[in-house]
Design a protein that fits this description.
- There is one protein chain.
- The protein has a 7-stranded mixed sheet, with helices on both faces. Strands 4-5 form a two-stranded antiparallel ribbon.
- A hairpin with a 2-residue loop joins β4 and β5.
- α3 packs antiparallel against α4 and α6 crosses α7.
- It contains 7 helices and 9 strands.
- 32% of the residues lie in helices and 24% in strands.
- The protein is globular, with a radius of gyration of 17 Å.
- The protein is of the alpha+beta class.
Length: 235
């Protein structure tokens, strides 16, 4: 099922000379990662994914978020072109039956030993899941949150960027995006770590379901690239 509204364009080709590959900058590699993620979103089989989601919901302790992340990883692995240039896994394991720390990790050997980490979270239009996407706390107790993990010492400590992929299972995507942006403007209790500096809307190929958020981290700046994939029935 091809979704015409998704804007996608192939980046400049990767050079054949490994010496040139080794000097490519982060932005070049990120463009290719975004291309493959957008290609997945544009062409995934909604009936197949919906079936997996419904099966997971029948379990006593459903882990829908994990199953969708696994679905994306397997589809990327099945893409022969992707496999020629990148690998994808749940952190620390290539076994899809074993859960790792990161939901999606994309790697290329020549990318200055960088990995592109993505934390994935379900979204349904409710504030509870928006909080879990960003930072979930009650009173003085900070429980965690996808975005917060980039600033509390857990994720991507040797990188200047990371990713968040929101799985919209219910609700209006525009309203959810607005609520996430509002939540990001709240200071974390570990401020100034994670404080929001600015946002860039429609940041990936001008797709409205994408945006970047720039944050303070360890006296420097850290960028999170957000993709909100709408997996509601209407898609």
């Amino acid at each position: 099922m091809e979704r015409e509204y998704i804007r996608i364009k192939k980046p400049a080709p990767l050079p054949f000379d490994t010496r040139q590959l080794k000097i490519l900058d982060d932005e070049f590699w990120k463009k290719w990662v975004f291309y493959y993620l957008l290609d997945f979103y544009k062409n995934y089989d909604s009936a197949e994914l919906r079936s997996k989601i419904e099966e997971e919901k029948k379990k006593q302790y459903p882990r829908t978020e994990r199953e969708i992340a696994k679905f994306i990883r397997l589809k990327l692995k099945a893409n022969r072109e992707f496999g020629l240039n990148f690998s994808v896994k749940g952190e620390e394991t290539n076994d899809e039956n074993v859960e790792g720390n990161y939901d999606i990790t994309i790697h290329n050997t020549y990318w200055k030993n960088q990995d592109f980490y993505f934390e994935c979270k379900n979204l349904d239009g409710g504030q509870d899941l928006v909080n879990k996407y960003v930072c979930y706390h009650k009173g003085k107790n900070v429980y965690d949150g996808g975005v917060l993990r980039y600033f509390n010492g857990k994720y991507a400590q040797n990188s200047t960027f990371g990713g968040m992929i929101g799985f919209i299972l219910d609700g209006d995507s525009n309203n959810i995006k607005t609520e996430i942006l509002k939540k990001l403007n709240e200071k974390f209790q570990i401020s100034p770590e994670g404080d929001l500096i600015s946002t860039k809307d429609n940041s990936i190929k001008e797709n409205p379901f994408t945006f970047d958020s720039l944050h303070s981290r360890q006296n420097t700046e850290f960028t999170i690239h957000h993709l909100l994939f709408d997996f509601t029935l209407k898609k």
